[in-house]
From TrEMBL:
The lineage of its organism: Bacteria, Bacillati, Cyanobacteriota, Cyanophyceae, Oscillatoriophycideae. GO terms for cellular component: membrane. The keyword Transmembrane helix applies. It comes from the Bacteria. Pfam families: Band_7. Residues 41-201 form the Band domain. This is Band 7 protein.
Length: 321
């Protein structure tokens, strides 16, 4: 069934072509070709990372074409320019401040400023590699000549790269370029200079090691000195503390003796004698006691009865101070 329908459809097409005027077919073909040609001339698609520049009769228009679909003059020629980051590596022979020759491998990363495409075209054109490289080489030689070789290969290497990038930006920005990075990647020295630098570095390292050892010894001596001073100070503090403690103790003893002397006054002694007599009087073996002394002064001393047998001795004792 399907084969019959297909054959019928083809038959109808053949009959339609036979009935169609050949001039009409030719006209349609010409119209399609002209339309496609016109569209291709007035519509330009610019890919991402590029811009376009129109030229009419050899003259470029200042306005650039952005990425995407653009309608242009059908009689113009459109040149597509990359605005992506470009990386250029160069090995350049140069000299140092002392006039020593050596080689450096440098890299430059740059791109065309999309807003300054017309300026690039107007000033350097699009075959600009030789111009960029020529300026790049010239600036490298100019900057390395400002520094001693020792500094270029050591502590000033980053500074040299920074100077190179700044100078390139100053030189290329007016032309329509943006410099992203300029680096010194490698430094190649002649064999004799390399050996001399190696020997110099070796001596410097030995001197640094010696200085380190000397500083270490000095610090150890300083530490021992501080420890000795600390020990002496500790001994001094200890001696002062002990002397202070002895002084405090001596004052305390003196105060104690003073208080004790005050407590042993005649009236206190008389009171203690009376208290002792009262205790003896309560004892089963009690003896008769009598108090003798100077009543006016209050010095009355209790006496045992046996002491009355020797009144001279008792009187002497009672009158004694």
């Amino acid at each position: 069934m399907e084969n019959i329908q297909e054959q019928k459809f083809k038959f109808n097409q053949i009959n339609l072509l036979k009935k169609t005027n050949p001039k009409t077919v030719v006209a349609l073909i010409i119209f399609a070709v002209v339309t496609a040609t016109v569209i291709s001339r007035i519509v330009k698609i610019i890919p991402v990372g590029y811009v376009g520049l129109q030229e009419v009769n050899g003259l470029a228009t200042p306005k650039s074409l952005k990425p995407g679909i653009n309608f242009v003059n059908p009689f113009s020629e459109v040149t597509v320019i990359s605005t992506r980051l470009q990386d250029v590596k160069q090995k350049i022979e140069t000299t140092s401040q002392e006039g020593l020759k050596f080689e450096v491998e440098v890299s430059l990363q740059y791109q065309v400023n999309p807003d300054k495409v017309f300026s690039v075209y107007e000033k350097v054109g699009f075959d600009n590699d030789e111009i960029l490289i020529s300026r790049y080489r010239s600036l490298v030689r100019e900057i390395t000549a400002l520094y001693p070789l020792q500094e270029i290969i050591s502590q000033k290497r980053r500074e040299v790269s920074s100077q190179l990038q700044e100078r390139l930006q100053e030189n290329l920005s007016p032309l329509g370029y943006t410099v992203e990075e300029a680096l010194i990647r490698e430094i190649f020295l002649p064999d004799d200079i390399q050996q001399a630098f190696n020997q110099k570095i070796k001596i410097q390292q030995e001197n640094e090691q010696m200085n380190f050892e000397l500083e270490k010894t000095r610090q150890q001596a300083q530490k021992q000195k501080i420890e000795a001073q600390g020990e002496a100070e500790a001994q001094k503090i200890k001696a002062e503390s002990e002397a202070q403690a002895k002084l405090v103790k001596a004052k305390a003893d003196a105060e104690s003796q003073k208080l004790l002397s005050r407590d042993l006054s005649p009236s206190i002694l008389q009171l203690r004698a009376i208290e002792a007599t009262e205790k003896i009087g309560t004892s089963p073996n009690a003896k008769i006691y009598m108090g003798l002394g100077n009543s006016s002064s209050g010095n009355i001393t209790p006496l045992l009865f046996s002491d009355l047998l020797n009144p001279n001795q008792t009187q002497k004792t009672a009158n004694s101070p």
